[in-house]
Amino acid sequence: MDFHSERDSAEVMKALEQGGALTKLLRTVVCESLPTIADLTIAIGILYWKFDIYVSLAMMFAFSIFIAAEIITSRYKVEPRRQFARAERQQARVMHQAIQGWTTVSYFNMFNFERKRFGKTVDAKLAADFTWGVRNFTLQGIVELIIPFTFFTLSAMAIRNISLGRSKPGDFTFLVQYWDYLIYPLIWLSHEYRDVMQYLIDAERLLALLQTKPAVVDKEGAYSIGAVDGHVRFENVQFCYDERKTTIKAVSICAKPGETIALVGATGAGKSTVSKLLLRFYDITSGRISIDDHDIRDITLDSLRNVIGVVPQDPLLFNGTILENLRYAKPSATFSDIISACQASAIHDRILSFPDGYKTKVGEQGVKLSGGEVQRLAVARVILKDPSILILDEATSAIDTHTESNIQRALDAFKNKRKRTSFVIAHRLSTIVGADQILVFDEGRIVERGTHEELVKYGGVYAQLWSKQTGTPDVVEEEEEGGK
Ligand SMILES: Nc1ncnc2c1ncn2[C@@H]1O[C@H](COP(=O)(O)OP(=O)(O)OP(=O)(O)O)[C@@H](O)[C@H]1O
Fold first, then answer.
1. In whole angstroms, what is the distance from residue 139 CA to residue 137 CA?
2. Which residue among 107, 231, 310, 484 is least crowded, i.e. fewest CB within 10 A of its CB?
3. Centroid of ligand 1 to alpha carbon of 33 (angstroms)
4. CA distance to 262, 452, 457, per residue, from 463 (Å)
5. For every residue of 20-32, which 3-state class applies, written as one string?
6. Residue 270 Cα to ligand 1 middle (Å)
7. Which family does it belong to (predicted)?
8. 450 by DSSP, 3-state: which?
9. 444 CA: nearest ligand 1 atom
10. ipTM
């Protein structure tokens, strides 16, 4: 999560695409350079056979100068090429942002702004390409001047050999006639060197990405947790996204199997962060989180995420059919399992009302469905997954109260079926009155905890929230230990 929240997905995609240059690099080195070096060795051998060691040494000398000149001049080409690759990624980022956020672009009528922004990236890319082209071909021209010089030098040496009677005039004709073939491997090799440089620069970003170490990994000796009862404990947990600000402060939670723990509080108080910590999207700074007394850092990420089911705040559907999206939760699910899950989440009848039923395409990120329909599909998905621990993060916030109470009943039945431990994050307090524990968060701390009745009696933050939401007069401020 650390990785993805820091990076732009379009840039990562472009870097992966540019990384295709690695295949070309491998092909150039293995399939082309090695035969070219063999060709060059043969050319030097032929010169030695036709003339003498000096002519072949002159060719080798020219070869060394040529490659050295290529290496020296290549450093002047690196920066424009790097700028070009960077401009390409920037262009992909701007394009992706405008396409993905096209509704925002429309709402704010920013077509011209986006057009200009995109135009700027095209200009930057063309400018970088032009600089690269000019520098590349100028330097290439300078380097290739070595070729005629080599030809004249070798010709002079060959003529001298003939005048001394060491070679025949026919050998000179041979040199002239076959010159292109003799010099060809050299030119080819320098082109290959240039290509290799270019491919390496293009793939630079991918190589850097490949070297990025994930912040959260299985530790050595991590074991699979298997089936769990659902005891979840947070012990004095501390966490910060940024070292300068602590997001979760000394949080302790104890959830027994089958219990429902509700997390409430102002927006930004740290409720969703608690669920991300349980899923180990991030590692905590201090304290301990355990499931059935297994520290979650000791078990494999795979087995941890297997036992937890989440309905996130903004569920994401893939661009496919409703059926495909539901099956994603459990590829082995039968059609009747899927229907039962959809009935429980009060979406089955709605799906049947669509002309294509379960084969309806949901569009990118579920754009063809309403917010409430997406949420109900997300609930159906988690029912299909059948996890031991459930996290519902504002799972029914976009659903009307009538449908919500239907889903709530289905979710209660689902929770009780297997004594599932549930964490429910909610702003609408009416959905969590029956919770076994309600934890009230404020700026990363739990400031109140208890059942609904206890907290209302206590008359603190929760009681105020409750009275605001239900329109009942403020409860009498009564300090009750039971509420704390
Ligand atoms: N990836 C992140 N990087 C940095 N800060 C983050 C990140 N995610 C959340 N935060 C910050 O952490 C704090 C807690 O966020 P969190 O999402 O847990 O709040 P929340 O209580 O769930 O809010 P809401 O009710 O609005 O969903 C916020 O101040 C938020 O800006």
1. 5
2. 107
3. 53
4. 15, 9, 7
5. CHHHHHHHHHHHH
6. 6
7. Belongs to the ABC transporter superfamily. ABCB family. Heavy Metal importer (TC 3.A.1.210) subfamily.
8. strand
9. 14
10. 0.96
Distance (Å) from CA 456 to ligand 1 centroid: 26
The angle, 0 to 180 degrees and rounded to 10, between the axes of the packed helices 111-144 and 169-211 is 150
Q: Which of 5, 248, 271, 277 to mutate to test the pocket of ligand 1 (most atoms within 8 A of CB)?
A: 271
Nearest CA to ligand 1 atom 11: 268
Question: And the tokens for 161?
Answer: 């050999």
Q: Are β-strands 421-425 and 260-265 bridged in parallel, bridged antiparallel, or unpaired?
A: parallel
Calpha distance 270→468 (Å, rounded): 21
213 burial level (CB within 10 Å; 0-12, 13-18, 19+): exposed
Q: State which amino acid sits at residue 335.
A: F
* Residues whose CB is less than 8 angstroms from the CB of residue 76 and which lie 6 or more positions away in sequence, other chains included: 135, 139
Beta bridge partners of 265: 441
pLDDT tens digits in sequence order for the chain, 484 residues long: 777 777 777 778 877 877 777 888 888 777 877 887 888 888 888 888 877 888 888 888 888 888 888 888 887 888 888 888 888 888 888 888 888 888 888 888 899 999 999 999 999 999 989 998 898 888 888 888 888 888 888 888 888 888 888 888 888 888 888 777 777 777 777 777 878 887 888 788 788 888 888 888 899 999 999 888 989 999 999 999 988 989 999 999 999 998 999 999 988 999 999 999 999 999 999 999 999 999 999 999 999 999 999 998 888 888 889 999 999 999 999 999 999 999 888 889 989 999 999 999 988 777 788 888 888 899 999 999 989 999 998 877 777 777 777 777 777 777 777 788 999 998 888 888 889 999 999 999 999 999 999 999 998 899 998 888 877 655 444 444 444 3
Domains and CATH numbers, the chain: 2-211 (1.20.1560.10), 232-483 (3.40.50.300)
What is the atom index within ligand 1 of the atom nearest the CA of 270? 18
